[in-house]
Amino acid sequence: MFAMGNNPNGVDTLIEYCDYYKNQAEDDSLSKTKFNVPFILGLAFRLLCKNDDATAKMVNYVWAIHCVDIRCSTVEFHRQYNSFPPNGAAMVVMADADLSAAILAYIRSRNSAFEISRVLVQEPIAEELLNTAQNYRCKIEVLSDSFVFRNAAEALENLHGTKQYEVISIWSENIIAAKKFAADSGICTIWINAHGDLHPGIESLTYYVRPFVDCFEHYNFKIENESPVDDTKPAKTFDLFYGGKWQTPTEGKYWTNHDKISYAEATRKDLQKCVNVAYQAFKIWRSTKISKRAQTLKCFAKRLEANGESKCADLIIKLVDLPMVHGTSFSVVKDGEAEISNTREPIGVVLVGSNDQNELFEKLVVASVTGNAVIVLLNSKSSVSFAPYCDMLATCGFPAGVINCLFTNGTTMLNLNTESIKKVLGNLRVDLKLLTCCEIDVPKTFGTRYNMYKKMFSSVTRAKSVWLQCG
Question: pTM above the 0.90 mark?
Answer without folding.
Answer: no
